[in-house]
TrEMBL record:
One Pfam assignment: Ribosomal_S19
InterPro entries linked to this entry: Ribosomal_uS19, Ribosomal_uS19_bac-type, Ribosomal_uS19_CS, Ribosomal_uS19_SF
Function: Protein S19 forms a complex with S13 that binds strongly to the 16S ribosomal RNA.
UniProt source species: Candidatus Kaiserbacteria bacterium RIFCSPHIGHO2_01_FULL_54_36b
Keyword annotations: Ribonucleoprotein, Ribosomal protein, RNA-binding, rRNA-binding
Protein name, UniProt field: Small ribosomal subunit protein uS19
Gene3D superfamilies: 30s Ribosomal Protein S19, Chain A (3.30.860.10)
């Protein structure tokens, strides 16, 4: 559910204070406030949003206003689904790439020999 209109958007007070004291050209603003909404005053700043392990840099644009900071810094890293079939298809693609590279190399050497 969205936040009540009478309460207004949630913007972390510390974060708003950091933005008001800093110029846009300075470095990143580190924050742990992932639930803070992006206010129009944040446009043009780079935030280091904490992901639980490190800080992901998020450059705020006009399209991001109203969203939460945490939406742009994922906390989990997707590792592809797969298994035996996925591995076989990857190996086949890799073998085809190697074959194409060796064929291109062979034609390059034959054309170089023909020019001499």
């Amino acid at each position: 559910m969205t936040r009540s209109l009478k309460k207004g958007p949630y913007v972390d007070a510390k974060l708003m204070k950091k933005v008001s004291l800093r110029k846009a050209t300075q470095g990143t603003i580190k924050t742990w406030a992932r639930s803070s909404q992006i206010a129009p005053e944040f446009v043009g700043y780079t935030f280091g949003v904490h992901t639980g392990k490190n800080f992901d840099d998020v450059f705020v644009t006009e399209d991001m206003v109203g969203h939460r900071l945490g939406e742009f810094a994922p906390t989990t890293k997707f590792i592809k689904h797969g298994g035996k079939m996925q591995k076989e298809t990857e190996m086949a693609a890799k073998a085809a790439e190697i074959a194409a590279a060796t064929a291109a190399k062979a034609t390059a050497t034959t054309t170089a020999a023909a020019k001499k």
